[in-house]
Amino acid sequence: MKIIIAGAGATGTHLAKLLSRDHQDCTLIDEHPERLGTMASDYDIMTMQGSPTSIKVLEDAGVGNAALFVAVTPDESRNMNACIIAHNIGAKKTVARIDNYEYLSKKLIPFFKNIGIDSLIYPEVLAAQDINNGLKMSWVRQRWDVHNGELVMLGVKLRETCEILNKPLRELCGPDDPYHIVAIKRENDTIIPGGNDVLKNLDMAYFMTTVDYIPYIRKISGKEHYADVKNVIIMGGGKTAVRAALITPDYMNVKIIEKDEKRCEKLNLLLSDNDTMVIHGDGRDIELLTEEGIKNTQAFVALTGNAETNILACLSAKRMGVGKTIAMVENLDYVSMAESLDIGTIINKKTVAAAHIYQMMIDANVTNMRSLMTADSDVAEFTAAENSPVTKKPVKNLGLPFGMTIGGLVRNDVGMLVNGNSQIQAGDSVMVFCHKHNLKKVEKFFKPRKFL
């Protein structure tokens, strides 16, 4: 598959690295040679210096034969123009990064498709959605909903209070039990568990369950003492903070602390119809945090542009008694460190955006894909096609690739768990957990057979 990426910033380079790992035919374009750096020599991709809106540059890059064209430069207008040009030259699918929220309206989808833009991504909106998922369930590190919440995956950090530690999973997750453990992250390893595996203290366990049993998962994982989030302090008033504040549930009280006085004035305008309080100050100032009620705050969210600052601020908030902390960590080199320091939920805009783009490469009906940085894995919602291999045999006989597991499915808008004897039907929405980001190996199971 030929893929062209315009923009060698954080999202573009991260996506190019993912594609290099999959041995895709990838070309990365940027006007500035220093941004391209050593990408061509360090990874299995082509690089090209030039403007993404230059017809000659795009033609030279081979956009006429591209299955996917992705424009992720910092300039929204340039991205959209590049996609329109690429589409007219011959690119089959196009994706543009934007920062105008109104463009995401569902009623505008046909308009953008008509002019040659198949998909729009706003990384800050995607990150804000993940932040709010974390705030709604203070005891969960990660949450992922399938089919509007009919099926739910919960990433939970286990402590000594967990009831199900040190017991073989075959005794815990039988066919009639209301949850499955689809993966375990233990220190630096991700385990796709079998019946003899056990959960241990400090594991990150990924539970698949239905929405009705979320309180049960909370009980058995020993998280009932976690206070529900009502008061939130956000450090940093960037785009992600604004989007997060705008979609926070009404029962939560949100304060944004921002160092830049002019930005505070802008925030007050952007949030004028919202109850969010904007405070001019430094979110690392202990005296300020105390004055603003950190002792009565259940969640602290650090969203500055500096990963180290965010990590340290979350550690300080934890020492001051905050139960839930969320840190924006854009430098992937710091993710493992943040995890080892037990920061809580970690947000990375470029991996969120890259996962959204990556799902467009899958040659099957796949939606709602998420990349789990801490587990080096992806989860995605596949729809089983008529006559696809996944519908021909019980799950235990499918011969699924190593590192892949099916956690559940939604049939006729009803979520249900899957075991080895389950038979997937055409039209089912199926939750797939895939270690080592090998979703491309999964697509063949959900596509219709060419010869019957």
UniProtKB/TrEMBL annotation:
Domain RCK N-terminal: 1-121, 229-347
Residues annotated as domain RCK C-terminal: 141-223, 367-448
Swiss-Prot/TrEMBL keywords: Ion transport, NAD, Potassium, Potassium transport, Transport
UniProt keyword Transport, yes or no: yes
Record-given protein name: Trk system potassium uptake protein TrkA
Species whose genome carries this gene: Xylanibacter muris
